[in-house]
Amino acid sequence: MSQPNPFQQGPYGPPQQRPSFPPGPGRPYAHPPDPNQPRPPPGNQAPPPPSPAQFRPQQRPLGQPGPHGGPVAGLMTPGAGVRGPSPAPGFRPAQPTDGPRPMGAPMGPGFRPHMQQGPVIQPGQPMTPLAGSAPLHAQPPAELRQPSPAIRPALGTPLAGQQPIRPLADAPRPTPQSPPQPGGHAVPNGFPTPQHSPPQTPRPLPASGPASGPGTPPGGTPVDNITQQFGGMNVNAAARASTRARRVYAPPGGPGSEGQGPQQFPPGPTPGMPPTPGMPPTPGALGPAFQQPQQPPYHGMPGPGMQTGPQPPTPYGQQPPAPSYGQPPAGVPPVPMQHQTSSPNFAQMPAGRPYQQNAPYPQNNGYGAGALAGRQYGGRGSMDIGQGGPGGSRARIDPNQIPSPIVVQENDQATYDQSAFYTKSQAQPPLASTSFTAVDDGNSNPRFMRLTTYTFPCTDELSTLTAIPLGAIIQPLADLGNGEEPIETVDYGEKGPVRCNRCRAYINPGFLYIEGGRKFRCNLCSFDNDVPVDQFVNLDMSGHRLDWERHPELRKGTVEFVATGEYCARKPESASYVFAIDVTWTAVQSGMLAKCAQAIWELLYSGEKGLPQGAKVGFLTFDKAIHFYNLKATLEQPQMLVVPDIDDIFVPLQAGFLVDPYESRPVIENLLKSLPSIFEGNRISEPLLGAAVQAAYAAMKDRGGKLCLFQTGLPLTGPGALKNREDAKLLGTDKERALYEPQEYFWTKLGQDCATAGICVDLYLFPSAYTDVATIGALSALTGGDIYNYINFDVNRDGQRFVGDVKRSLSRSFGYDALLRIRVSTGLKVAEYFGNFYMRNATDIELAGLDSSKAVGIALRHDGKLDEKADTSIQAALLYTTASGQRRIRVHNISVPNTTLLGNVFRSADMDTTMNYLAKAAVAQTVNVPIRTVRGQLEEKCIKILTAYRKHAASSTSPGQLILPESFKLYPLYNLCLLKNKAFRADAISSDVRVHSMRVLKSLSVPDSIALLYPRMIPLHVLQDALGEPDERGRIRLPSAIRTSVDRLETNGAYLIENGHQMCIWLGRGISVDFLRAVFGVEALEAIDVRMRNLLPLDNPIARKVQNVIRRVQSERSRYLQMQIVRQEIDQQLEVEFRSLLVEDENVHNSSYVDYLCNVHRSAMKYILVTGGVISGIGKGVIASSTGLLLRTHGLKVTSIKIDPYLNIDAGTLSPLDHGEVFVLDDGGEVDLDLGNYERFLDITLTRDNNITTGKIYKSVIERERKGDYLGKTVQVVPHITDAIQEWVERVAHIPVDASGEEPDVCIIELGGTVGDIESAPFVEAMRQFQFRVGHENFCLIHVSLVPVVGSVGEQKTKPTQSSIRDLRGLGLSPDLIACRSSVSLQPDVQQKISMFCHVPTEHVLAVEDCNSVYHVPLLLHRQGLLTVLEKRLGIVRRSEPSSVSLFEKWKQLTTRYDRLHDTVRIVLVGKYTHLKDSYISVVKALEHASLSCNRKLVIDWVEASDLETETLKVDPIKYHDAWKVLVGAAGILVPGGFGNRGTEGKIAAAKWARENKIPYLGICLGMQIAVIEYARHVCGLEGANSAELTADPAHPVVIYMPEISKTHLGGTMRLGDRYTHFTDASVGSITRQLYGNANHVHERHRHRYEVNPKYVKQLEEAGLSFIGHDEKGERMIITELKGHPFFVGTQYHPEYKTRPLKPTPVFLGFILASSGLLPEYLESMKDPSASTLLGRYPSLAEELVSQLSQATLDDKKDAKDTADSNASA
Ligand SMILES: [Zn+2]
Q: Looking at the annotation, which residues are catalytic?
């Protein structure tokens, strides 16, 4: 202790040399002296792993704990393991006199590496510097600072000795036939298949290539697919393509048909046979599955899928023969492939490709066209999921009929077995699962970059319509395939590669040389760059540079440039690998440490592919202290240097830490062998991971490289200490996602530091409990590393996998210190990046390390329009250092065409890439929204894409069918598989596992993701003939995979299943003894040891083949696959895990494939039918719209259809007296007032078609009959009228009704009248059929009935309800819910009685008593669980739209406000039909909404206009005086629209009163005309001024007939529907315009014939009445306003039609405000929306309006249509 501790001087204190470890007795830890010990030969002989026992020093006192329980590292202070009392925290050189101490002795240097002469470090003594080493840190040794670059080339990089290609001018011309570049990739430059000989030379013109080449795919040349689709498609192909699109089958039936097992298809009754009305469906019976649902049988059409005309009954695709074509009867599987065997292409197929075996519906094969051709001309979906015909019950889907990934993948594989893929000339790449050979002829190999679609939509709108995301998955260092040419390296010398001067893009084949070669145009930013003079070369005829062929960067999609000095922040060096190993008690006891040592040994010295040449390795171990190891080759033994002061991390050595593993092999082997024994007795259980990473960072920060961390548990202490925050209660809740974020910034910061320093961190975790992968995993997530998670590590179970993982991971080609930059063509931008990396700015992806298996995703968005004639280019440039120490820029380029045709986007879409993209994007979402929402989004996306296809790309299909695009037909399956991934599963999964899965997905490559999503299952008991043997290329032939479903397993079979992460071999109970004996060497299943990880090397053909298959499978995956045996029924625990891999089955809380497909289909549209019983007018409309509102609060889009069983074509001709108000829609439709109810409640804009009347239906049927559409049949109510009704409903239900333009999710159909009426019978029958047409799960019936209260005691009577339900049932409709209208709330026993007598559950009986207002009804229904019932009944998925979440709250506030109002506002309505208030319902609603939003209680006084006339004074003076009394008491006077002349004079008198007494006046339509007449008479002095409508030939016709001649709008005599009104100059400062937020124009609905006479306008305006709103031509006066009056406004339009409870229409709001005296304040507040609040004590809607309106003003700049939409939207 007398020596000063140098480390107290600071972190950079002088390093100390350690004296040699003294030899001699009492060296308890010394390994047997072994400088000369024979070492394992360097060859590939794999010695037995060093077992702890083997290396245990003999003299070591075992298990003798130190004073602190651990034989801790030697250099601890006394009291090892904790910072002892000793003041010397550092280490000191061992004094010879110290002598070695036995492990566990109090001073115990718990460990001494078995060194004979190494320095020993003793506690409490400062350490002397290492012999010969320079002082640490202060002056690092020069050799470490300036290491010489290593020599070994990296994979795919130019190899040693290769002549780099010189810059353009003087490059030596490489001979095309030149052998492949020397070095690692000595692959033949060509293709191994004999039948295919691709060009050996770079082909001069990509376009001329493959079409003429021998390597064309069978059945068609890989020419531009568009040509093939439209130009080259022959008739047969067309027929096939269209045939393929129409196979229809039914979804599973109800409970009765469940469990019947697969049914052969098509079964059942004769297709097309109409059901007998009223006959209930036979449970389990099979429907006419082939019948086109909407296709009436009497069409005489041939049945299934044939609606577009007769087509050859080909067995094409998955289409089974149609029975009506005389094909084999139902139940006989189609006999496929007669063509196939005769096809020369298939004849060349290797034997043993049993297409038929598991693929009863081979898809493209029948034409010898192969999958590629199929995809090209197909494009159109291959299957529909239809429903059984009306009345027919639904058959269970035969799993064989749904798209199979096996067939798709095998077809694709077959194509590329025959031919290579030419990257530029062929449109779409092979499937990700296909093993192919790519020829780079201008685009990057798909291994490097794949796009979600290979034709880009020109505009954002088009892109949105397709719903297919635009993105790319880039795997920059992917391994090349067999027979592919290595990437060429281009060296531009000092100047560096040619780049665009504007966007800095690298030279690529897309650069267009112009002006004779003096300039080139950048394909990314279109900038014209000058070609430097010294690089100028003339162009040839085709515009290429003459030296084109010599420059791979002008020919190839992928090249590498040698990076010049400016690309190097520091001198590139070969990669260094540091292993930081946890050596705590757990690590030792679990066997992890020993396995770890073994893994590293095998990696380095087993002779297999190991670390890249030139790599350096370093070791450190940690428990409570950090132990560095000096491994200098000159040492005999490794030296351990302990840094116990974890608060002050430094690197105690420099020179010997990173060493060449081959030079230092003896020392390293020594260390690895002894590590387990050194720490064998270690009792420390808290690994200081944070400190260890800091230490490694300190050691590596100057050169970067790979850090492998081996860690057992949560770091509970030390830097970055973490706490166990996982709480099972959080799982599955919204708070769960907090667990996905790092809990300590320490780790994020450390990860960022490592990323910046180019240190890539791989984590190997061996947790027995929560380890917080989210937090410590940030190290890997930010640095591009991997995480391996061995939960409850069991050395027997997981040891081999761990060793395999280490070897796989570290022997992959590796680049580090990398920067990835993506450039895309003008018009697109990269919107988002997905993956494990760090971004300090918005464009550069920093990848500390990157290996061949890692991929990065990008999301692309439009920021402009793409040129249809140009291509879209994407360039990914990766600047990185190869593992061997060369700085390179690897540039991947791809360019694809643009299109304005939506179908092209679908046709070129790549589903594999899209799935990978969606997975990555979904992972990115998990930090923002709960998993549940992410799942919902994934499902929604699926439905959106498929719906978009059906809507825009598929031809002539029923809206009820789901049609899968050919390229996306596996999408539902893969989407389901993604939902079953641990990252997104619905069940509670520990956050560690979930986060780990997410991180894996984030960097997963496309092929790996497909393997992971859909596991591969290979039967092993069928290895006959050549299966399992190598083919001519040396590849093991695999049996055809089978679909991953338990239904496919045979109990006498053996199956291998793997997903790239797990591999199981499942052995059926009935497996033959021969197989067991041959493969396992046992006689019975029970005798197999399931812990075996390798098959016994038995020498018989079967065993060999099985082993071959396993080996091939293992070699194909980027992770090591460890074998797990699972025996049927014996290993039940393991079988659970095995079953979870069977993704087509129902498991892991997700449905089966079949069910999911039906679900996807179901999700298309839900129908809720509302019928009424007992009497009409009991509030069906309110209940229906309230139901819709509640669904809207769950984010669903709701539309509605009102059926009125009267014969009028529309309500326009109905007298308001008879039928209440005529409601006018935007499109001018005059409809039932209930539609107004829907518009108001649901905040939607309906069309006239949303109102069905008997008249409309009959009219359409009669018109069709006249056209001869019914082919001479007798046209009848059933089926023709009923079919027409159903078609109408289906068509209208899909019309978007809100501003989003998206299809609704739910359609509410209100059937007017009461059930049992003669009028409604056809509709009831149509709905009865409709429930089968759309499926039980999509159809729900709410019956609104009446429970009258009678007698003095108020008895509630259920009889009427029972009887009306009976009527309903008798007509074939069963109510799901019964809404009981009653004046008082329903008594519980009454509810139960109804439940019992009407056969519905009690909770399905809803009590709807009279409420304060209709606004209360939704709340009333909500309280009774209506939503829950509906969600369950219809399987509705709640959507996640934040705005809708608050909708319910807003609504609640509205009703609260309604109940609390006490300030009243008294409005007088002067009208004509005042005794029938229904005829003014919209006006009343508008007044009500406006009053509510100003917190005023509305009181309406109805005044019959004629009562105000002097005539009445004569006849009935009391009436007259009463009327005037009411009028003069009004706070506001409203004159609504109306027809006829009765009461005109009274209205004029009212207007005069309002004007003269400054009472707020609002005149609507006629009311405005009245105001004008009044003004003309009394102010302008135009005696006799009147309306031409009211009197014939008035003296001054100030209102005249001005019909609008419109071809597009019905009723050409009337201005109807939405019209444009433009504010005039005079409107500036007017109240009305301010109320509209100072908009320039408004859209409101009109319904009038008479208008203000333009001739009088000037005169009126001069007298003070301004017309501030005109129509578009300025001819019609739309808005009038009197200046200087508090509110005197007239509008020719009807603003009341657009009022909403939560958004009153501005004119009415202003009127009510003025009547309440609040208008000036309100207008003031509009000028400054931030200023608050005038309208009372509740949060005021009016205030919200202010902000909405200021938004509307902005929108004003857009075109008129936009504004209309925004007004209509919420
Ligand atoms: Zn550019």
A: 1565, 1694, 1696
